[in-house]
């Protein structure tokens, strides 16, 4: 892909780029340039944390997560927080096992620079109200990353309608091959990264 002059290389490159277009259409992204292929969703979150987080978060900035996160959406932010001397806060869950939106609102403030959370929890099965979360986060100027591994196969995703800034996805959760995932972000954010 992208390397050979042979006809088979040209076909492989075309199919590779067509899959980028398919993902763009699947999540209603603006451009196939917004799709970055990764080995998995963990790598996608790591890229966002390292490429965006390390360069944009500073001392006393805050990262808001939830206690329902998979470790792949905690550890990268812990590493950034340690390196950049920023803080991580965790939103609680209710007795019913859903996101405590009141606690989320209480922890969100002008120092919150990114909210990173799962769309559908793999352990609780709850679907987080992403549009409401994004609206609240944006009112403080915060970016939003969603881990969409569970939701991509079970619900329609429209990144523009959700008004998010990053989305991590995994191939095998969509009945695709193992060892592939993707990071989506708006083109203007990727250009700055």
Overview of the molecule:
- The structure is a single chain.
- The protein is of the alpha/beta class.
- Helices cover about 40% and strands about 20% of the residues.
- It contains seven helices and seven strands.
- The chain has a seven-stranded mixed β-sheet with strand order 1-7-6-5-4-2-3, sandwiched between helices.
- Strand 5, helix 6 (about 160) and strand 6 (about 165-170) form a beta-alpha-beta unit.
- Helix 2 packs parallel to helix 3 (about 75-85).
- It is globular and about 60 Å long.
- The two termini are about 25 Å apart.
- About 40% of the residues are buried.
What is the helix/strand order? HEHEHEHEHEHEEH
Helix content: 25-40%
Largest sheet strand order: 1-7-6-5-4-2-3
What does the radius of gyration come to?
Answer: 17 Å
Number of helices: 7
Counted beta strands? 7
Main sheet: strands, sense, barrel: 7 strands, mixed
SS strand fraction: 15-25%
Extract low-pLDDT stretches. none
Shape: globular
Return the average pLDDT rounded to an integer: 95
What structural category do the secondary elements indicate? alpha/beta
- What is the end-to-end distance? 24 Å
Key attributes of the depicted protein:
globular, 7-stranded mixed beta sheet, 193 residues, 7 helices, alpha/beta
Describe what is shown at a glance.
By secondary structure, the chain is of the alpha/beta class.
Secondary structure layout:
Blueprint: H1 7-27, E1 35-38, H2 41-56, E2 62-66, H3 75-84, E3 87-91, H4 101-107, E4 112-118, H5 130-138, E5 143-147, H6 159-162, E6 166-170, E7 181-185, H7 187-192
Parallel strand pairs: 2-3, 2-4, 4-5, 5-6
Antiparallel strand pairs: 1-7, 6-7
């Amino acid at each position: 892909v992208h390397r050979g002059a042979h006809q088979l290389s040209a076909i492989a490159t075309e199919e590779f780029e067509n899959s980028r277009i398919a993902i763009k259409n699947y999540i209603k992204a603006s451009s196939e340039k917004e799709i970055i292929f990764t080995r998995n969703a963990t790598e996608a979150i790591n890229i966002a944390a390292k490429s965006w987080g390390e360069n944009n978060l500073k001392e006393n900035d805050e990262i808001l997560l939830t206690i329902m996160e998979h470790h792949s959406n905690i550890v990268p932010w812990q590493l950034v927080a340690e390196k950049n001397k920023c803080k991580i806060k965790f939103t609680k869950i209710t007795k019913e096992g859903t996101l405590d939106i009141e606690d989320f609102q209480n922890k969100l403030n002008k120092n919150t620079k990114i909210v990173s959370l799962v769309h559908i929890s793999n352990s609780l099965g709850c679907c987080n109200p992403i549009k409401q979360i994004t609206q609240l986060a944006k009112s403080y100027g915060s970016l939003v990353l969603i881990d969409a591994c569970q939701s991509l196969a079970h619900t329609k995703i429209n990144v523009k309608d959700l008004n998010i800034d990053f989305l991590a996805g995994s191939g095998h959760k969509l009945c695709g091959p193992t060892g592939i995932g993707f990071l989506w972000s708006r083109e203007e954010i990727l250009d700055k990264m």
